[in-house]
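If I may wish for something, please sit down with the protein I am sending here and say whether tokens and residues agree:
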Amino acid sequence: MARLSLPACLIDGQPQHQVEVTDRGLAYGDGVFETIAIVDGVPALWQAHLNRLQAGCQQLGFSAPTQQALEQDLAALDLPDVGVLKLIATRGSGGRGYAPPDAPTPRRVVQILPPRPALEAEHSGITVRWCQTRLAAQPALAGIKHLNRLEQVLARQECQADGSAEGLMCDVKGGLVEATAGNLLIDQGKEWIFPTGVDCGVAGVMQSYLGRLADQWGINVVHRAFMPSEMNDATALLICNSLIGVVPVYAIGTQKLASSLNYERIREHLITQRLIAV
């Protein structure tokens, strides 16, 4: 196959931009996805993203794309020096109704996209809001990055309405969980808090990486429930995901937060390790 130019898309290894209308990912969100930074022509944290994709497929009960198939797709694409790799795995096509076919033929989609646009003032700190949309409790789906993102869509509409750069989302009990498009790190210097929700949220690849990094740096990591009432002007909050790395939060609405003691150190590490682009 001839190498494809950006933007490019392969569906089951073939150059296409359309899936069948019977695809269950389109009809029911029956699938999972990964969004990966391409830095110096290489997908960052590739194995961790692949592991989460495969775990999500297993949780939903269909076969995941093999690592060999996905890497063959990447070899056929012209990976840019900097960009975004998106992987989608669905159960494939099926008939009417929610019941999946007895012998599904899963479908894989590999897309190469332009680099993400920078957030305004992302290095000095962004202003976010509390979202009214809550994350529903569903233990069967908690942790995986499934295609049902309607809660995030509604939350992003809230952000668009008042111009907030991001939004903070809570679970049904009111505990802080994550941003609309990222996980959270509460930086207390020698201790980092990763908020945990009640049977909801995505197990972040970047957050997991930062947890391992904290161990190397001798920083204690605590996974616990964190209530919005705990947030004050001494709190330093970072948003993290695989595309932005880490971004400091300057304020939640009109409530200003403290500066992170570790932001610059984390960012420099991610750049040096070629996990985010400059």
